[in-house]
Amino acid sequence: MDQLSEEVRQESPWTMMFADDIVICSESREQVEENLERWRFALERRGMKVSGSKTEYMCVNEREGSGTVRLQGEEVKKVQEFKYLGSTVQSNGECEKEVKKRVQAAMAKCPVVSRFTWRTNYLLLLVICACVIVWIMSLSESHVKTHEQVTTSAEAQTTNENEDERVVERMPKDLCPEKSPLLRGAMRLEFRPSLTLEQVEEENRGVSEGQYEPEECKARQNVAILIPHRNREKHLMYLLHHLHPFLQRQQLHYAIYIIHQAGDATFNRAKLLNIGYLEALKNFNWDCFIFHDVDLVPENDHNLYMCAKQPKHLVVGRNSTGYKLRYNGYFGGVTAMSKEQFAKVNGFPNTYWGWGGEDDDLRLRVQLQGMKVVRPPADVARYTMVFHKRDSGNEVNKDRMRLLGQTPKMWRKDGLNSCTYKTLSVERPALYINITVDISPNTH
């Protein structure tokens, strides 16, 4: 153990190793959840699994309103103490002399970690299968000032290998560059009638349960792509075929959520996007949300699917409009808003049944909050619209102009805070997370 620790210390001064249990240490609940989700995803890509029933968390010196920790939307069991290195660690920060002695000896190996490890507020204990090993990772001295957090790495037992074989995964330590070196620029899009979902899966083996994370660096933003859907399977396949590699070249940590409206009630795009936002946040603390129509495919990967300081409209032009903006103030098709921006405007309205009006309502909400819409350059923000006839059940909303006139007085009452629905199923095939919901008016 001493020899291995010394080897690691020489290779990476910001890395230390302990034995027995997997522990994630962070200063906030959000950091714990983010690091836990990263490790769950990284391990599951290698055939391992985090046991939800055996995962516990403890808040050291808990302050009022510290909240709960979630794993895949489910609350993690909270404890007042747990066994670590064979001794009991308590929520008041106390631990037995033996564990202090062993930890202090290990801390001597890495002074950078020792300065702030015991200032963390959360200790999250994971048990993965039978064999586990702990990595406590801090940042380099230049990063300590800005991040002040400790993350850990672990090995776990694979289902198809010997019980004693272990795999160690390290967290990325460097941010991805502001401009990805993988970008290609404008691309010629193809929509092959013979394309199958199996082929798309084969081309995107790095995607698991609709989620992807770059291995070479730490993504600058965590992005949830929300796609409202009903009876557009071919369009969805074409979009997934182009969108997955498009996002991977941008070196994003992302997940694609399909929000499927069940039944034959009139389509409600806006409400489905509200649901997607609420459901996605149950899985992960996403920074940025892309609200994406299923029939629009981006042509240029310099059109970054990342959020800005202001709400961003990504469809400046498309083939069906001669690559010109549809009209002044257009805010539909594909838009990007941060978690805070979308919450500030109370999301979309829930009352727009049928086609049209909901994107203009969202733009008005943005303006009412003193924000403005920004757009990428016109030669970059270009899309191909996959041709289709008007869907049955998505007829033009003849009531949209009246509803728009009520936005200034209704936006606080109609939105995320009034979004009611019934979740029928949540499925996780390889390429996306499919959430099927019932939003029929007579259901609520």
TrEMBL record:
Metabolic or biological pathway, per its Swiss-Prot or TrEMBL entry: Protein modification; protein glycosylation
UniProt KW Glycosyltransferase keyword: yes
GO molecular function terms attached to this record: metal ion binding; N-acetyllactosamine synthase activity
Superkingdom per UniProt: Eukaryota
Protein name, entry field: Beta-1,4-galactosyltransferase
Species per Swiss-Prot/TrEMBL record: Hemibagrus guttatus
Lineage of producing organism: Eukaryota, Metazoa, Chordata, Craniata, Vertebrata
Topological type in the membrane: Single-pass type II membrane protein
GO terms of biological process kind: carbohydrate metabolic process
EC number: 2.4.1.-
Keywords from the UniProt entry: Disulfide bond, Glycoprotein, Glycosyltransferase, Golgi apparatus, Manganese, Membrane, Metal-binding, Signal-anchor, Transferase, Transmembrane, Transmembrane helix
